[in-house]
């Protein structure tokens, strides 16, 4: 008989969002008449930008011709796309050879766990994007420190509490709190990593939402970060590629293991073994989306979601709730009554038909919070606002 991978015993039965949907389905079975409105998973709602659509179409057409057909691409990604990503997001900060194009940030996070293996000591923010914890658990890693990130510390971890950590996962703009790490804070983090000889895994999947020009959009804005940091990012929220799938990870060539071996070399070995490269169609769509016209379309799409966030925040504040995030991020982190957040989730569902994400799903410091996502068409968001206005639970 085949033995079950024992590490699965250390995982909760289902990932956060399937668990949300399981409870929603159960509710809907008993209340089929209720029109549910999801402000839960951060899934984009707006159609692809014109530039991205044309890029995808053209590449698909090319593949249907003898001259334009190609099979496997480079495992690391098409050079033109890596060059363009560098030019748009990291001018003079990194080299195209340091970019590994992929099928998305979430998959890359899983790949990084395999790269570093089960002995690396990890630290994550609490609350945190659950993928960092779940993927490390699957590879058998039991050494995870949870760093409280709460309103009291400005959602920034206390670095003095960080002992014996190899990999520190940071997400900025943060999922779920919507907070953004400032430049001085990021400088402190890089100095900390240099002094401890640790690596930072910096998840910048939401950096496109940053409006405040003083806030860093990439960790490589900090000198020396290329010796201590890996950055993961994604086209998902930038241009609505959650279904198309395209992302990237940066492994600087200066990043070295303790024995001096370049991490870039191992990651190249890893990617060429485990992955055959992102879809060439998706890559062509991503490249087209980074044209001048495409960037303007992207800017408008991000502004649209931020306007949603602002509308949701105003309505929640009218209910006298304390709301964090949403100005440089698509997520709003909302302090509700001091009740277990799965109860908050259920009450909100029953009273308003709105699906939010329970804060506890992101870690113990999320208890008493709900996360609201601002992804949604305008009519969808306006309907949700109306429900918040008229049916918000009175005792919160
Ligand atoms: C979220 O809602 O936290 C994200 O959209 C989920 C994801 O990107 O995997």
Cα distance, first to last residue?
52 Å
Strand tally, please? 13
Q: Can you tell me the number of structural domains?
A: 2
Which ranges are low-confidence, i.e. pLDDT below 50, for 5 or more consecutive residues? none
Q: What are the secondary-structure elements, in order, as H or E?
A: HEHHEHEHEEHEEHEHHHEEHEEEH
CATH topology-level fold name of the largest domain: Aspartate Aminotransferase, domain 2
Q: Percentage of helical residues?
A: 25-40%
Strand order of the largest sheet: 2-8-7-6-5-3-4
Detail the topology: elements first, then pairings.
Elements: H1 16-30, E1 37-38, H2 50-63, H3 79-89, E2 99-102, H4 105-116, E3 122-126, H5 130-138, E4 144-148, E5 167-171, H6 183-196, E6 199-203, E7 229-234, H7 236-239, E8 247-250, H8 263-274, H9 280-289, H10 292-318, E9 322-325, E10 331-335, H11 341-352, E11 354-355, E12 357-358, E13 369-373, H12 378-391
Parallel strand pairs: 1-11, 3-4, 3-5, 5-6, 6-7
Antiparallel strand pairs: 2-8, 7-8, 9-10, 10-13, 12-13
Residues 41-43, 106, 175, 373 line the site of D-malate (MLT).
């Amino acid at each position: 008989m085949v033995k079950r991978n024992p590490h699965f015993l250390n995982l909760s039965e289902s990932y956060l969002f399937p668990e949300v949907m399981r409870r929603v389905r159960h509710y809907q079975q008993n209340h089929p008449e209720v029109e549910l409105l999801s402000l839960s998973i951060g899934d984009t709602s707006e159609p692809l930008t014109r530039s991205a659509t044309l890029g995808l179409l053209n590449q698909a057409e090319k593949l249907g011709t003898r001259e334009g057909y190609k099979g496997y691409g480079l495992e690391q990604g098409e050079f033109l796309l890596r060059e363009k990503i560098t030019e748009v997001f990291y001018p003079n900060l990194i080299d195209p050879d340091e970019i590994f194009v992929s099928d998305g940030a979430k998959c890359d996070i899983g790949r990084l766990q395999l790269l570093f293996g089960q002995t690396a000591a990890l630290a994550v923010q609490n609350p945190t994007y659950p993928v960092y914890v779940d993927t490390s658990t699957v590879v058998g890693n039991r050494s995870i420190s949870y760093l409280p990130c709460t309103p009291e510390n400005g959602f920034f971890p206390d670095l003095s509490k960080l002992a014996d950590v190899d990999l520190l996962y940071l997400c900025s703009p943060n999922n779920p709190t919507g907070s953004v790490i400032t430049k001085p804070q990021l400088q402190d983090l890089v100095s900390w990593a240099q002094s401890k000889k640790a690596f930072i895994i910096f998840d910048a999947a939401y950096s496109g939402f940053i409006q405040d020009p003083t806030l860093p959009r990439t960790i490589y804005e900090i000198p020396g970060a290329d010796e201590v940091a890996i950055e993961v990012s994604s086209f998902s929220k930038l241009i609505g590629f959650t279904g198309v799938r395209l992302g990237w990870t940066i492994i600087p060539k200066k990043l070295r293991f303790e024995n001096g071996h370049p991490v870039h070399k191992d990651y190249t070995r890893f990617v060429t073994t485990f992955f055959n490269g992102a879809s060439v169609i998706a890559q062509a769509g991503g490249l087209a989306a980074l044209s001048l016209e495409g960037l303007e379309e992207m800017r408008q799409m991000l502004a649209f979601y931020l306007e949603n966030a602002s509308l949701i925040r105003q309505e929640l504040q009218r209910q006298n709730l304390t709301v964090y995030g949403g100005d440089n991020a698509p997520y709003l982190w909302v302090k509700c009554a001091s009740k277990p957040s799965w109860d908050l989730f259920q009450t909100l569902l029953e009273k308003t038909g709105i699906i939010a994400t329970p804060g506890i799903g992101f870690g113990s410091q999320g208890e008493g919070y709900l996360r609201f996502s601002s992804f949604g068409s305008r009519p969808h968001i306006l309907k949700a606002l109306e429900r918040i206005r008229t049916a918000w639970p009175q005792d919160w």
